[in-house]
Amino acid sequence: MALTEIPTYVGVPTAAVCAVQPWLLAGAFSVAIGAVTVRNFRIYRIFSDPFASTLVMRNHVLFGWLAEILAVDVVLLSKNAHFQTVVVALLYVSKAALLLFSLWLAAQTRAAGGGYSESKSIAFAIYNLTLVLCIGLPLAYTDALGQPFQFAVRSLAIILPVTGLLGALFAPKLVGSGRIDKPETSASAEMEPAFVSFLAKRAKPAAPRAPASQPMSVSALAALN
């Protein structure tokens, strides 16, 4: 969705293009960052709650939160054009708040391991997006640099975060799918041969012992002599 924003910067902007641009950019940002944010929030709840084994966050709850984020965009972008300045300001404030919350979650869950190691990739993608926006956003609104430069900056500000987000999320899965890991030997598996050997020794009948020799009496010794 974000990549479809780039062709709208080419040529003379029309009324339709100007109306579509905010919807594409705001929707793409909300879907991408909102999705990784609610996903990271579930990981954060699991690792921060001592009773996480009994805490289950269903997918429909996460999708509901994502729908609420998109609903904010719909409400703001549906306002009259006379309030365009206010709408743009509110959009920036809402996106900045979402990005800051996502940065905080990324910092909190960056050390998650096990089956949640994807949080490291999500944190990398969020850091990459924040850096690009901090550099590219002021340059994109600098008219003194010229239209070609603004087009290049806006395009890179879209392509780099999208590429980084997709690469951080899917590259580890693609690399890991072609690697065969050696199964780990559990402690119970290591103890099993010794335990079986111990049981075999206990079950094995003991060998018959030879009868102990009785000492000979004095009369028997005298008879032998």
Report on the architecture of this protein.
- It is a single chain.
- It is built from seven helices and no strands.
- Helix 1 runs parallel beside helix 3 and helix 4 runs antiparallel to helix 5.
- It has one domain.
- By secondary structure, the chain is mostly helical.
- It is 69% helix and 0% strand.
- The chain is globular.
Shape: globular
Instruction: Round the Cα radius of gyration to an integer and report it.
Output: 35 Å
Domain unit count:
1
Distance between the first and last residues' Cα: 117 Å
Average pLDDT metric: 72
- Quote the beta fraction: under 5%
**Number of strand segments:** 0
- Helix-strand category: mainly alpha
What's the helix count? 7
Q: How much helix is in the residues?
A: 55-70%
Identify low-pLDDT runs: 180-196
Largest sheet: none
Protein name: G-protein coupled receptors family 3 profile domain-containing protein
Transmembrane segments: 20-38, 59-77, 83-107, 119-139, 151-171
Pfam family, one: 7tm_3
Keywords: G-protein coupled receptor, Glycoprotein, Membrane, Receptor, Transducer, Transmembrane, Transmembrane helix
List its traits.
single chain, 225 residues, mainly alpha, 7 helices, globular
Strand-helix topology:
Blueprint: H1 15-48, H2 59-77, H3 84-108, H4 118-140, H5 147-177, H6 187-203, H7 218-224
Helix pairs in contact: 1-2, 1-3, 2-3, 3-4, 4-5
Can you summarize this structure?
The chain has seven helices and no strands. The protein has 225 residues and is an all-alpha fold. It has one domain.
